[in-house]
Structure formats: structure tokens, C-alpha cells
Amino acid sequence: MTSLSQPTSTLASVNSTGINNTVTSSPKIRLSKLEDKIYFGINIFCNLYFIIPLIWICFHRNSFIVKQRSFILTLIGGISSFLSAKTNLASQNYNVSCAFTYYSRVVFMFIAQVCFVSRAFRLILLYRLNDYKLNQLNHKEFIQKTQNGDINESNIYYKSFKKTSDKKFVYLIMPFLIIFDFIMGFFLKDTLIQKIFVIGNYNLNDRILYHSQFSSSSKIPEHFKGINESMTNLFKVPRYTSYFFIILYLIIVLIFIFTKIKDDQKFGIKFDCFSNAIISLITQLFHEFLCTNKAKDMIAKQINPIYTINNVTKNGIIFFVFVDFFIQLTSVIIPLIKCIQEKQINENHNNVHINNLQYFYSILQSPAFMDELKSIALQEFVAEDILFWENYCTLQKITNRSIKRYEERYNNNNNNRNPFNMYNNNNYIHNYYSINDYNLNLENNHIDNPYYPILPDLLPYYNVFYHIFIDPNVHVPQNIYQVLHNNPVVGVFDGAKNEVVESMYMSIFPRLLQNSRKQIQNLN
């Protein structure tokens, strides 16, 4: 079998003038072959395929479909994927330096992979967090553990997960990783250039294909030994990062296979992360195979299909372009289509009575939809909202029953009707209620007077509710802490409740309408 004749002749002529400071004089754009014309068309399509959706999705950044995937990670990952695909495609039609492809791998592809891996682990951690909350803090657990004094707020263990994934990682850890990777790559390249390397622009495909056939045992032509050694050393940083991401992809795939991460949305975030992990893992593994001595020997001997695949994919570079296109499809284009569809559906049903906030209150008070709401809240990472509502209703139920009992018991005692003086028996409520009494019956769960003082024995419930569900760093319409400790009234959490319900109305209610519109219309 013969070796790669065209790359050999090209490089022989290129290096006949010397290894250093070599610049070719071929046309600026290669369009002579059909393959060149196809890649030129893909280059143009790449601009439209990436830029338009990335700009468009910015207008939907407040949509919960985009927030679920983290807008900032999606945007940074999308831009990096575009630059990675563009630089890899450019070498198919233009003469570029080896550093052009090198920095594509070291910087742009690295950033895109970091963003994708972060989004996948963010999904896994937030899903586990919300699942833990739903199992840990149902309304019975809230009552029982408050009475026993041993309630553990689930946010104590996982409170920083969402903040870390959405802010700290993006603004602190991720820049550090990128800068470290760039510095490592820059100093390695600078060191190699000072020793021996080809400087200038040339047909990089010929050089890469020619380099891909030399294994450690191959007899390398004398004129190419320096370049071959430099290229091998130069791409060590991308190869080491590739090993690192292969391990992470494998972990992500195994987690999705062996854990129950639900997503009832077709082409939802689970499909996004799971499919990208599989595609990236397969392409990375195959590219690493092309770099092995066995594959290089097969390429040198022109053994198919490895020889043909290596030529067609330019030693695996086109695989990376395919991955960038696929990530753009699942992470940006599909969510964008979902946002547009959701907006159209909302506009078509804008004046329908089931779409208003008051009707959503009636849905929240219907036990028939509670399980589905919890399932949606779990997938949207807003389990704390549905838990707030459920435990708020439980707190109101306890308060309502206690007030009724108090009114019945002390109705005839006008001189001693201050609730703060009447409940001296700390075991009163504990003896009056049993756990079986806390099956919610929301029809009788309304307190007419929100300024009614909180009965003393109910204060532990209100204090626990405050520490679990009220974030002191978030502004609320009223100063809950001061009201609770200076002038405690039963309506202390009403303002926060309104905010939470409005949040659920914007986040989980559209998904509920999408899944169960007919059932909701039949709700009396």
C-alpha cells in the first residue's frame, strides 16, 4: 500500500525551503474541489445556524424554559461552540496556522465543554436537591418534627447548590479554569515555537493528515521529524483535557442511566444533557482512537474504513464540528422553539378564564392536581415553592382550628380574652391534634382576620416556617422578621405567599396547562 501521496508532496515542497518561517502561496480560498464548495456552504450556514438563535434566545432569557437550563451557561456555551465550529471549518477552505486549530481546541472547545458539563451536573444536583426537599419536608413532616423540636431544614445541606451553579461557578470557578487552560496552552506553544516549528499559514488539512499516519514506531521522513515532534507535543494539552472530559461524560451518562431523573417534556433538559453526553463521549473516544499507534498504522497502510474515515473527517476534526452543531440544536434551538410555541399558546388562550391567577388559586386548592404540580415543580427546580404553599396551608389550618377552639372555649370570658394570656398549657395543641388530623381540607382553611394575634403555642410553627421558607436576603413587601418578633399576627406570611403563588403561576402553571388543559377546564 502507498502512503498519503498528496500530503507528502505538499509538505515536501513546503519544507524544501526550510522548516522555520514557511508560508505557502496557494489561493486565499480553496474552492476547486466539490468538497471545498460543500465546506464553504457549511461555513456560511454555520453563521446563520449559530448567530440568529443565540441572539433570538436572549429575548426569551426570562422564560422558565431557558432559566431551567441556565441562560448564562447556555449563552456562553453557545458562543464558544460557534467559535469552535467556525475555526475548525475555516481550515477546510482557508490557509491557516497550526495555532489557529490549536487555540480552537484549547480555548473555544474547552469553554463549550465546561459549560455543557456544568449544565449537566447542575441538572443532576438540582434535581436531587428538589427531590430531597419534597421527600423531607411534606406537611406531615413539618407538623411532626416541629412538635418534636427536631426538624432539619433541607436547605441547610444544599442551600448553596443553585447559587453556586448559577453564579459562583460562572463568575469565579469557570474563569479560573479557562485562564489556567489558556496560560498552559500559550506557554507550551510559545516554548515549542522557540525550539522548532513551522510559522505561517498553510493547508492545515494536508499537514494534519500527513502527521496522522506516523506512529511511535514509524520511520518519519527527515524533513518532517521536527514538525511531527512539535505537533505531537503541542496537542498534549488538548489531549489531556480530552481525557478529563471523557471521564466526566462517562460519569454523566452513568448517572442518567442508573438514577431516576424524570423529564416529561419531549426533547427537554434531560434529553439535552443525556444525548450531548453520549454524542460527546463517542466522538471523543473515536478521536482518541485515531491518535493511537494502531489507528496510525492502519492509516499509513490505507486500511479501510479507518483510512477513509480519517480522510473524510480530517483526523476527527469534523467530529468536533458535528458535536458543536448538535449541542447548538439541543441547547439553544430546541429551547428557543419551545419558548416561541409557549408564547403563541399563551397568546391564543390569553382571554380564557382558566389562564388567570384566581383560577390558579382554585387549582392549588384542588388535591387532584397536587401530585402533578409537585412533579412539575421537581423538574423545574422550584420544589420550595410548592412546599411553601403546602406548608403554608398546613400552618393556616392549624391556626384556624386553634383560633376556633380558643373562641369556643373563652367566648364567655370577656375579661380574659387576650390570646397571649390564655394559652399557658404548652401541651394543649399537641393533645388536641393528632397527625391523622392534618389531611388538608382547604375549604375551611381561611382566616378572615390576618391581624389576629398568633396564639403562643403556635409560635414554634411560625418560627420554624420562617427559618425554612423565608430567605432573609430577599426583599419582601413587609418586614416579616420584625412583625413575627414584635407583633406576631396570623397573616405575617401572606405577602410572601402572594409572591410564591405568582412565581408558580409563571413557572409551573404553563406546564400544567400544557399537560392537563382538558382536566383543568372541567374543574369546578
TrEMBL record:
Presence of the UniProt keyword DNA-binding in the record: no
Gene3D superfamilies membership: Regulator of G-protein Signalling 4, domain 2
Regions crossing the membrane: 38-59, 71-90, 102-125, 169-188, 240-259, 317-337
Keyword hit for Membrane: yes
Recorded superkingdom: Eukaryota
SUPFAM superfamilies tied to this protein: Regulator of G-protein signaling, RGS
InterPro entries xrefs: RGS_sf (IPR036305), RGS_subdomain_2 (IPR044926)
Keyword field: Membrane, Transmembrane, Transmembrane helix
Protein's UniProt name: RGS domain-containing protein
Organism placement in taxonomy: Eukaryota, Fungi, Fungi incertae sedis, Chytridiomycota, Chytridiomycota incertae sedis
